[in-house]
DNA sequence: TTATTAATTGTCGTTTTGACAATTAATAAT
DNA sequence: ATTATTAATTGTCAAAACGACAATTAATAA
């Protein structure tokens, strides 16, 4: 029987940075840690990678267990593996960021875990290197969202241009001209205008749009260019 | 003493996809595996993550040991963690891609390991999921290179526009108009024209350029836009 | 009927893009 | 010495995209 003799073995975990949008601000979902050390401190949603699952599987399992949601947008970020990042025992953690529709979550709230949404800019200190993870996730979200149409994942199926506009401003922490934004986002051809209007918070009302799923799936890898005629 | 009872522990490794450019084609550096199973089969450069090092440290150590090179461009790609990807024992591997100047390597060849450059499009079958890793690395290289000036890492300090041009064509597997390419690449302001010319393979000779290090370091995160006035 | 508010559509000069051609600097051939 | 050859370099131009900026519209409240 062959074996990799004497190589050290480690725990492997996943941690998820869960982003949501309440219509005004970008938020993240945190939980009170349920085990020692640092029990009852705020932390990211995480868990150990089981014997029969990949890290991706584990991240999905953790999200399902803690939010009740399946099939959420989940993206591997990077691995966190400093030898002493966990004070108890060496643990490497794969960081993921997730985008969810905050309202879906509220509908399926799971009471087994003490979870709470926090404003991204007003959140408690987290355990271990989770603060760094959040910072990295935010940066990656910004990067990705500038090139690919992923922010829709944080909105309901029906959404308005002004909602999307605010979300883009939140994620990028900047003001964007409404007129140019509207032109650019519609020119992607990814939006389908609905007959219905959203009348909350506006006299005129804003038309609802939905994603053109076909084009969205086909174009999710498309992005702007340095290469002429670039099609990825 | 607190401990994470009964959680399974795994081996953690790193694997590096090392890219080089010989002036004509994109190549990758492979080694003959030195341990069972699959001994003497071609594989990526890799190794286990030691007790006192991070995965990044491990990748740098492996590269140093096998190529003699330090400070090479190294980027974490993703984690490979299917439960049965290694037939002997569960091992998760962090994939990295590295860009090196192929001539630097040849100068410092390390004979302890049987390593060899292969054309990216004409390489042997690799062990485990290493074929998938190479495919992923190639995709990521293409993606990154379209947005950020990283391909310089595969060229000598002094290089010509035609060299760079061929490299871009190789990486993207497409033809690029020389005139537009030249304009675009010089308009980045990252290149400094030297007085000297490269006369090999051309009667007229092509001017050498070098990177403007200051601007390169300052702009390495800059990229094209979906956001107006985007500056990352 | 008018004031108010937010959504929506529109204008325009500038810059970037990408398709395409002409010129230049060197060497090799006659 | 002149000319042919080859690859590098510089140039043209119309179309599209960009970004700064303003006018109009659809609804409700006064």
Q: Explain this structure to me?
A:
- 2 copies of one chain form a homodimer.
- Chain A has 232 residues and is an alpha+beta fold.
- The first copy, chain A, folds into 2 domains: 11-147, Nucleoside Triphosphate Pyrophosphohydrolase (Alpha-Beta Complex), CATH 3.90.79.10; 151-219, Winged helix-like DNA-binding domain superfamily/Winged helix DNA-binding domain (Arc Repressor Mutant, subunit A).
- Chain A contains 6 helices and 10 strands.
- The first copy, chain A, has helices at 55-67, 102-107, 130-147, 161-172, 178-187, 213-219; strands spanning 11-21, 26-32, 42-43, 45-48, 73-80, 91-99, 115-119, 159-160, 191-198, 206-211.
- In chain A, a hairpin with a 7-residue loop joins strand 9 and strand 10.
- Chains A and B meet through strand 5, strand 6 and helix 3 of A and strand 5, strand 6 and helix 3 of B.
- Chain A binds a DNA duplex (30 and 30 nucleotides) through residues 160-162, 177-180, 182-184, 187, 197, 199, 201-207, 225, 228-229.
């Amino acid at each position: 029987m062959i074996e990799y003799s004497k190589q050290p073995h480690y725990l492997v975990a996943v941690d998820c940075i869960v982003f949501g949008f309440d219509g005004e601000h970008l938020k993240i979902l945190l939980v009170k840690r349920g085990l020692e050390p640092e029990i009852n401190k705020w932390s990211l949603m995480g868990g150990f990678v089981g014997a029969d699952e990949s890290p991706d599987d584990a991240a999905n399992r953790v999200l399902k267990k803690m939010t009740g949601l399946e099939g959420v947008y989940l993206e591997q970020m990077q691995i966190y593996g400093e030898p002493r990042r966990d004070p108890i025992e060496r643990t490497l953690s794969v960081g993921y960021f997730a985008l969810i529709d905050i309202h879906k979550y509220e509908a399926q709230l799971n009471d087994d875990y003490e979870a709470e949404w926090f404003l991204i800019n007003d959140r408690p200190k987290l355990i271990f290197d989770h603060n760094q993870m959040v910072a990295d996730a935010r940066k990656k979200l910004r990067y990705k969202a500038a090139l690919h149409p992923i922010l829709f994942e944080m909105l309901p199926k029906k959404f308005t241009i002004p909602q999307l506009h605010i979300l883009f401003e939140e994620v990028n922490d900047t003001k964007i001209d409404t007129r140019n934004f509207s032109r650019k986002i519609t020119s992607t051809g990814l939006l389908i205008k609905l007959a219905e209007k959203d009348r909350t918070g506006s006299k005129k009302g804003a038309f609802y749009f939905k994603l053109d799923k076909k084009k969205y799936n086909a174009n999710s890898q498309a992005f702007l260019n340095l290469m002429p005629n670039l099609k990825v």
